[in-house]
């Protein structure tokens, strides 16, 4: 028997590949299937089942394509109603893969169909729990995503989650290995640990949700501090539930190379978002006017989903040469299938054509330190998360998280200069590109963000400014 965690850092997502005696099972596969097909061929095993823990909200699973390519059936837990052929398992139903068995544990709460899969080895020992979004390391699945579909409140769903965890998961023995669907950085939880594998016994000791005195305290703790889910989550659920275009079709369409003239013509005709996936430093030096920078070198796909939001939005890509396929692939993982093509030979081709180029006013942390002494009327916007800002920040400054830019952008006075920064420059350049695309040019973005500012003499504090008005 072999169990392999296939972890994708940019999505904080774990898929699982299990083999035993010539047969295999895959749990929660990613959209692109060729890595799994290659593994199956290399190991000379037959894929017997594709297990889905639930209808995922934060990524599009590869279950449909993988089933079509291998003939392996898709398995869901009780109550699931997919729009395609699948096995809807009963609670405690057992599936055999080689010499091992996989037991379905229906654990509603995150969603109604949510299920965990308990692995029983060749000797009959319960050895691993593939916990999906029911149990994370340090946290549990958020109970607010399925309210509409379930016709229940988040408190109702949290109550179901309590019953699932305390009646079905907690009684399992401590030595069982927990393999969750997500880790730190995922929006599916609020308190995840950085580790991706742990024992159930350690989670019983360290996970706050597993240490509540009763059902009421569990519900209160789990719903406390939940931020609104990204807008694209519901769209991903629908794709996972009803079906989607094949990944190969999406990739083929997205990899249409366009000359600068073709790119410009299609941009004007389609209403596409011009998505520049180069590094923030390259983008700052020059970019196509109206383009938005979300770099591949960060949490690319989640930020695309959080900020562009509508998976049906047409996109045109500007990427470093050789990075186009990676960009289309990572976009497809969160359901953005409408890439119309990319700029052939990248930004250099645009620049060489003599077409209009824009830049961002990016300054160093040292220049920032000098300028705030003479430009004391210029507000300082910190686009990090509230928890980062609360730890330490420039004094004075305003916390305006990037995820909420569509809410706070209207507060900006276009006639008044301001500074903007994040932790290292990735998020503040995203914000800068959005601001400039919407007509705001009255700002300076700080290169290196707070990490660089912290090394200067700029005043800092952990006092949280209560004022929300930045005009």
Written description of the protein model:
With 471 residues, the chain is α/β, with parallel strands linked by helices. It has three domains: 2-234, Ribonuclease Z/Hydroxyacylglutathione hydrolase-like (Metallo-beta-lactamase, Chain A, 4-Layer Sandwich); 246-352, Oxidized Rhodanese, domain 1 (3-Layer(aba) Sandwich), CATH 3.40.250; 362-461, 3-Layer(aba) Sandwich (Oxidized Rhodanese, domain 1). It has a six-stranded mixed beta sheet with strand order 1-2-3-4-5-6, covered by helices on one side. Helix 1 (34-43) links the parallel strand 3 (23-27) and strand 4. Helix 4 crosses helix 6 (215-223) and helix 8 packs across helix 12 (324-332). The protein is globular and about 70 Å long. The mean pLDDT is 96.
List descriptors:
Oxidized Rhodanese, domain 1, Metallo-beta-lactamase, Chain A, alpha/beta, 471 residues
Q: What is the approximate shape?
A: globular
* Main beta-sheet strand count, sense and barrel state: 6 strands, mixed
Q: What is the name of the CATH superfamily of the largest domain?
A: Ribonuclease Z/Hydroxyacylglutathione hydrolase-like
Q: Give the total of domains.
A: 3
How many beta-strand runs?
Answer: 24
* SSE-based structural type: alpha/beta
CATH architecture of the largest domain: 4-Layer Sandwich
Mean pLDDT: 96
User: How much strand content do the residues show?
Assistant: 15-25%
Give the C-alpha Rg: 24 Å
Total number of helices: 18
The end-to-end distance, rounded to whole angstroms, is: 62 Å
